[in-house]
Amino acid sequence: MKIAFSTLGVPGMPVAQVARLAADHRFHGVELRAHPTEEPVHTGLAPSQRSEVRQEFIDAGVEVLGIGSYVKVAAPGEDEPVLTKLRDHVALAADLGAPYVRVFPGAGESAPAGADAVAARRLAAVAPYALDRQVRILVETHDSHRTAADVGRILGLVGHRAVGALWDVMHTWLGGEQPSASYPALAPHLGYVQVKDIASAGDRTPLPLGQGVLPLTECVEVLSREGWDGWLCWEYEKRWFPAVPELPGLLDGARHHLWRLLNESA
Length: 266
Known about the structure:
Layout: E1 2-6, H1 15-24, E2 29-33, H2 47-60, E3 63-72, H3 79-96, E4 100-104, H4 112-132, E5 136-140, H5 148-158, E6 163-168, H6 169-174, H7 179-186, E7 190-195, E8 198-200, E9 203-206, H8 216-225, E10 231-234, H9 251-265
């Protein structure tokens, strides 16, 4: 498996610094949070700017794992605004050489069956566009569809290889689902896995990996046992918890922890 971190942990950091940080701390890749006002990477970048971002990572020997979008594929409302945002983020990922775009379910209070159908319809509409650009759209286990079983319902309706799942270990755990149940539900669709750690279900302040309650050991054991060889991406939510320690000082510890879990599960 390869390891990455999300720029949610280094909000607003310039691209060159992010690429160098990953290289210096021996991370294989980075998930780039896309936000039009808070981050240097977003869908408003001109072609020349996209080329510059891509080259920064190539020069550093670091992969752009994915684009962390805030598109909500099951959100109430008209389809077209969602479809436009989906295409825009897929195009950004393709221009940066990233294989994945992260999206949220975001159904709010909508009934599950209706929300599943809305999300599937929108994802299916954009899937051929994504396939042509060698990008997969990944629905994260999050908010209205917290568990693997929830996201699996959507993906079963879509049935297209350009649409898959992003397993956020915290959300499946909060939804009462153990890794031994999450993995089989996501395995046919799994793009990559987001790891993190927190103190408790009631206190989601981010902690260094291995210092909280999330079942990271069990998650890695399941992945290793099944022969999965994809990406583990550390999402340290510094943007939402500004008082927590800075990410750069925690990267070496996170890398050592993940490698230890991988070695012990081999």
